[in-house]
Amino acid sequence: MDYVGNLHLYDREKKTTRRLTFDQDNNWFPTMLPDGRVMFLRWEYTESAHYFSRVLMHMNPDGSDQKEYYGSNSYWPNSLFNARPLPGRPGMFAGIVGGIIMDALRAERWLQPFLLDAMKNASTREAAVEAGEAPKMGLMERHAFAYSETSSIFKKVWLWVIIGVGLGALLHGYVPQEWFTENLGAGQWWSVPVAVAIGIPLYTNVTGIIPIMESLLLKGLPLGTTLAFCMSTVAASLPEVLMLKQVMRWKLLALFLGMLLVIFTVVGWLFNILQTQIF
């Protein structure tokens, strides 16, 4: 008889331990997901070949609602170890690449004039303080300056923030799934940029897009097209564009949206190719 590892929950305050899993074989590598659930690996025999038996699972922190995440009846990859969620939002890659491009283009030139003036004044005062030509701000002066700047910016953007939030409430979670599967399900090269262009104005969050993604995949939409669409809905939206317009000029806003379109399209094409060649 061999010992196996099951998952337990330790209560620091009560100093008690409660068993969460009751499996005949090991559970490994528990980790927290961004939505608060626990992801872990289970050595599972049910409906799975004996050799490919490391199934990725997830459950509530109290052990309830245990479900398979990936790997049941799957022959590739044939082993999973130390699985971890990707940090941040799906737009993280786009943010890194986009930031490098914007720095190279000196995109700060295309901020709204009031922000450019504020940045210029801050740089001028900082240089004067370092040169000894102006005294350093005291605590009260800093508070007065912060209040003045905050009030000035708030007066310029508050109305558009409310409009953007209201528009987001109307659009939240709306995805034309049937139209997608009927018109973009054949995997045409142009279907990926079209999916991204449609997804950018829509509004949802990283948790709300998961069931939509599952539904699109089950209805036959290619993997790359689905990923590109889901990333675009999370990374940008029409409400965000309305609010960003208050601090960005049209050139910078067009550059921002254009980079998202290009990056997500390339990612979608790549995964569509991998799907046909590997999966």
Structural write-up:
The chain has 279 residues and is an alpha+beta fold. Helix content is 50%, strand content 11%. It has helices at 92-105, 113-130, 139-171, 177-183, 191-199, 209-218, 223-235, 238-244, 250-277; strands at residues 8-11, 16-19, 27-32, 38-43, 54-59, 67-70. The strands form two sheets. A four-stranded antiparallel beta sheet has the order 3-4-5-6, with no helix packed on it. It has a two-stranded antiparallel ribbon with strand order 1-2. Strand 5 (54-59) and strand 6 form a beta hairpin. The longest helix is centred in the middle third of the chain and has 33 residues, at 139-171. It is extended and about 75 Å long. The mean pLDDT is 76.
**Strand line-up in the sheet with most strands:** 3-4-5-6
Main beta sheet strand tally, sense and closure: 4 strands, antiparallel
Form type = extended
Through-space gap between termini: 39 Å
Mean pLDDT level = 76
Structure annotation, total helices: 9
Segments where pLDDT lies below 50 for 5+ residues? none
SSE string, helices as H and strands as E: EEEEEEHHHHHHHHH
Rg (CA only): 25 Å
Estimated structural class: alpha+beta
Q: Report the sheet-strand fraction.
A: 5-15%
Helix content: 40-55%
Number of separate strands? 6
